[in-house]
Design brief:
29% of the residues lie in helices and 16% in strands. By secondary structure, it is an alpha/beta fold. The chain has a seven-stranded mixed sheet, sandwiched between helices. The chain is globular.
Length: 217
């Protein structure tokens, strides 16, 4: 299956420096720097599928004159023709992420849209929208893999544990995983960092000699 994973652009409304104590200011970066570890983990869970990453934060750092988000998303959807599009969310990027999903559905309503990330976990009700098909509210590597398998086999998504399914404007939960794997332990999935090659230079912080990254602990 073809899967497109999208990291939304940064929100322009970042007020962290307006509220941080003076002694913390030298250590704070206004930009959120670092690769989308959650999306890379989803890709690592699907080594036998055709996975593409659109890292919009990195893309606009690399090419400031890149097309606006809706045009960039449309371009990637038309190029990759995905069966599933997954978008990760934090609160400040919720508006931009929802616009991404609306653009995807405008390109092809048959594409399955899946959301996850911290905001989806804490505020799943914010995703009860026609542009969202599935919400993942748990560490999603294994769950996403099971979702992709179900879609591939034509099996009902109600049998995939750990999801919220958009059914006629209502988010309907599937069963809770009976024995969820520990994503930082026995259930660890190695992130597929090979997808980051284009944007590595954008993860360099200050005068560091190389890019920064995230790890699970």
């Amino acid at each position: 299956m073809k899967i497109l994973l999208i990291n939304p652009p940064r929100s322009p409304h970042n007020a962290i420096l307006d509220h941080a104590p003076a002694e913390a200011l030298p250590f704070i970066h206004r930009k959120l720097i670092g690769p989308p570890l959650g999306l890379l983990t989803l890709a690592g869970a699907l080594p036998d599928h055709d996975v593409t990453l659109l890292e919009m934060k990195g893309e606009y750092d690399l090419v400031p004159e890149a097309p606006p988000p809706d045009a960039l998303v449309r371009q990637f959807v038309e190029q990759t023709r995905p069966d599933i599009v997954g978008v990760t969310f934090i609160a400040s990027e919720h508006p931009a992420g929802m616009e991404i999903l609306r653009t995807v559905k405008a390109c092809n309503p048959q594409i399955m849209t899946v959301v996850g990330g911290l905001h989806a976990t804490l505020c799943p009700q914010d995703f009860c929208d026609p542009c969202v098909d599935v919400v993942c509210t748990l560490p999603a590597g294994h769950i996403f893999r099971n979702l992709v398998r179900a879609v591939e086999q034509g099996a009902p998504l109600e049998g995939v544990a750990g999801l919220l399914l958009n059914r006629e404007g209502e988010l309907v939960p599937t069963p809770v995983p009976a024995d969820p794997p520990d994503p930082a332990g026995d259930g660890f999935i190695a992130p597929d960092r090979s997808l980051l090659t284009r944007w590595l230079s954008t993860y360099v912080v200050g005068k560091a000699s190389g890019p920064s990254t995230y790890i699970y602990t």
